[in-house]
Amino acid sequence: MSAQKALLRMARRDARRSKARSLLVVAMIALPVVGVTAADVLYRSFQLSPDQKATRSLGRALGWVYDTAVVPAPQQRDNVQHVPRVGPAPPLGKLVPAGTVVTEDSATDGLVTFGARTVRTTVRDVDYANPAVAGIFFQDSGRSPHAGQVALTRALARRLGAGVGDAVTVRGQSATVSGIVHSADGPAKVLAVVAPGSLKRLPDRYLVTRASSLTWTDVTRLNAAGFVLNARHHLAGQPPTPNPRSSSATGSSKLTAIALIVGMALLEIVLLAGPAFAVGAKRQSRELALLAASGADRGHVRQSVLLGGLLLGAVGGLVGVLGGIGLAAAGEPRVQQLTSSYPGPFELRPLEILGIAAVGVTTAFLAAVMPARAVSRQDVVAALTGRRGQVRSLRRTPVIGAIAAVAGAALALRGAQHRSINTILAGSAFAELGLVATTPFLVGLAGRTGRFLPLGPRLAVRDAARNRGRTAPAVSAVLAAVAGSVAVGTYVASLDRYNERNYQRLAPIGTATVPVDGHAPAASIQRLQQLVARDLPGTHTQLIRTPVVYLEVKASSIGVCAYASNRTPEALRRAEQDPLCNGHALNAGLTNVAVGGPGDLQALTGLADRGQAEVLTRGGAVVPLNLYEPGRGTATFVSHPTNGAVQRSFTVPAVPLPREAIQVTVLSARAAATHHVALQPAGVIARGATAPTQEQEDRLRSGLSGLGLDSPLIVERGYQTKNTFGMLALLLGSAVIVLGASGIATGLAAADGKADLATLAAVGASPRTRRTLAAFQSAVTAGLGTALGIAAGLVPAVGMVRALNAAARQARFPRFDPYPLVLPWTNLLVTAVVVPLIAAGAAALLTRSRLPMVRRIG
Q1: Could you tell me the pTM of the whole model?
Q2: What is the pLDDT of residues 491-515, one digit of tens each?
Q3: CA 791, CA 439: separation in Å to the nearest integer?
């Protein structure tokens, strides 16, 4: 029998003897393999081929044609002048080859109402029952619509509560629901499909189908008449399309980011699985010492542990691949709902799956390298007698690690100055690896503090320092997980604060706005005000009027940020204090110029300032801050009339709005009457103590459809972050890894320290001492790891925020507003305080109080 076969048999027997430890390693290897395999299968299943994508939008058509109204159409790459086409477009049927089927396709926005529910959606006019374009919609129930009928997608029917046979209103016209369909674009598609010709408008595009493929000659004929053809496939005779210049920097950044993410994920698994192999090797130390005493060299001892890693890695890889395929199959409907898209065929790519399994095996092998190296260098006599030997960290290792951490942080900050994502990520990874290298030294340093601690913590920190082979990797795993969470969380929180600070409100918080067309009849406007007052009880409604002609405030020397034309350090310092660079931009809500009094100003901005009210009462105006010239106290309005009318201007007293206010222009009604400014309605604003509920919004939208105004309803709810779920996922992910790593370290410590616990029992320790010891062992691992992880995570976060600010300073027309560095304090406090306490409590609850009695050797 060869030596490798004998060593493999030993590894297999050891795995069977230590079933709990073996299952732990297999689970740690299998879990990431399950996730990556499921992600790969789902990604490939939802990654559609070009032909599949074309079928979902074109059905069986060869392409679609739309009218550009210019000749020649801008599809040719020749450098020619495109001019408006004179006269109507020629019939499309005469421009395409004989035998071509042309199907009209139109779409527009509109309100669909059923009972008290109204939904604004897209209304499409296409004959989806035509076999030439089959594949765009699929009939679930009923049939395709005829004249006076409509088909609803499942999502729209569910929102309306309508079914086949119900009477609905589509764009103000009554229609009967003929069928329920689902769109190939996805299950969440909200759409109404009416009978061909029901929209009574020129088609937006035409779907063309014929037995043979179209050619580039057909395209040139269409282009000459002003039509553009987007074909399903490359056309015969089509000249090659020049490849656009690709951004190598962007591609390099993506590759660097992917490589670092994969590398750090592998490091995480290695750090988590390493302690298990270390404890296993330590428990085999006597057996391996006998092997060495029998004549085996260090290589054979090392191979014994490495073969155990390969064996468990192979089992973990196989279990992970099978579990990942099953998870992908079970989770495909859920992913379909989340992505609102239908998958293609369930696709398995053997080479990719084998590669993922190989990564799992390689990870287990790497996790066993350090324990194998350590056990091959152990003192044979000390191992046979059961002595521990000396436990020290190499002096040069923490020094090298500290230098690497400092150098990596400096490299990341240097990359921020030059806006190099690659450099920031590489420096951050280098700094994190440097901290990982210093972890054994820091664990040993923590052990020296035991003399100042009570009995339980003293035993925990000294046990951690004495068994650094299993403690340091667990602490490093917590470090890596917390660092990633802190880095992403800090960066996202900083962007979120910046977006919140620069959010431009269209109206005061809780205000409902209904814009209307200026030509709407007075009776309709009056009914609109009554409807808003009825459906939004407790609100004050205000009708906003605007000039018929466009008015603007003329400014002579303002409105330009100094830094825009003079990018010098001195100009940059001035820009930081310049309200024109930092002030809110001119708001474009209902209108830029409103005509009215203090009530209109309060409805638009929420302000009730006495000085501004007096100016409006005296016939003046309130203007935005960046349109006000200090020292003049007036504003000049200039009209921009149409149809050749004479341009007029007039000057009125003016005061500015404060910086934090919604920036609008309000001209007093008295000034408008004095200067003969004709007015028209712009919309109705409803302001109450609280924002309307969703039920009130739906009721009001339903009433708006009955007025025939086709007006949208806009509710200002302030800045709404979209990162709550992501931040919670980061917190949960890091918490799971922290709890897992501390639990693994505590469990291994309990298995490894039975002799120490027996000694405690022999000297009279109480039963709860074991629980206390386990709790503090878990707290040491989690606490030290989170502290180092927070420090490591701040490096890339600071680098990315500084890179954003460096890019803003180099912008051509900056509105200089630095990105703040915002720490996610909730996440940090939970990770650094709550999670270690939970880990300690869980360790205390799950640990048996009875102290074991074992026989000690030596």
Answers
A1: 0.67
A2: 888 888 888 887 778 788 888 888 8
A3: 13
